Amino acid sequence: MAPEFVSSYELMLLELDTPNPLYCPTASCSTFIPPAQIVANVGTCRKCAATVCGHCKGPSHSGVCAEDTEGQKVRNLAKAAGWMECPNCKHIVERYDGCLHMTCKCNTHFCYNCGSLYGNGPGQCATNCKRR
Length: 132
Fold this sequence. Notes:
Layout: H1 3-17, E1 22-23, E2 32-33, E3 38-39, E4 42-44, E5 51-53, H2 69-81, E6 84-85, E7 92-93, E8 101-103, E9 109-111
Antiparallel strand pairs: 1-2, 3-4, 4-5, 6-7, 8-9
């Protein structure tokens, strides 16, 4: 048998055996995404390179997915503890000391006190929030 046929057949068996399979969110593609192509609950299509959220099955997005019940619990804990979310990528940030100027891993600069972006001069947030 041709190697392409065997490979295609093995992929079909994997698709049938995969519980809760993930598919490319691009309507013109809809290719099965094997478990090996899923990292941190984000799948990458091997055919068109689109990424898909493993929770809501839509295109991948920043922040905690509304369908991610465990992630929502962490988000609620963060709100109760007074932690901030990056205004750009929605990653949760905890400040335990130091200045209020935060630099997220997405390279967004924001004020930990009010959540506004930095931009009105060096070391100042875009609003006149009360510092704590």
